[in-house]
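User: Sequence recovery, please. Input:
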């Protein structure tokens, strides 16, 4: 099952209507959905680094969400990464994302 948000319209709706939860390097936006499966999108600014750094960070975030089964059903999410997030190692990244979803 594909759990990705792809359209700009979906992202902008979640940014406007979503509930915001933050930690120093990430912000999680969540909004209720009428569908049983969750959808998640990743927003990583060019301030984070060049394309290879941003892509590596996205791959790591996708893997963390996939393996930890953190998101709840009937919700859509967007994870917004801030400057400095690409420098974290995998374990620290995993810890911060887990804390973010627990809040």
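Assistant: Recovered sequence (103 residues):
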């Amino acid at each position: 099952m594909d759990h990705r948000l792809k359209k700009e319209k979906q992202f902008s709706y979640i940014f406007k209507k979503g509930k915001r939860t933050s930690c120093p390097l990430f912000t999680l936006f969540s909004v209720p959905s009428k569908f049983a499966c969750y959808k998640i999108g990743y927003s990583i600014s060019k301030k984070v680094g060049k394309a290879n750094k941003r892509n590596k960070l996205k791959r790591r975030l996708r893997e963390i969400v996939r393996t930890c089964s953190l998101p709840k059903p009937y919700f859509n999410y967007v994870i917004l990464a801030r400057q400095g997030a690409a420098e974290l190692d995998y374990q620290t990244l995993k810890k911060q994302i887990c804390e973010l979803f627990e809040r």
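The CA atoms of residues 76 and 87 lie 27 Å apart.
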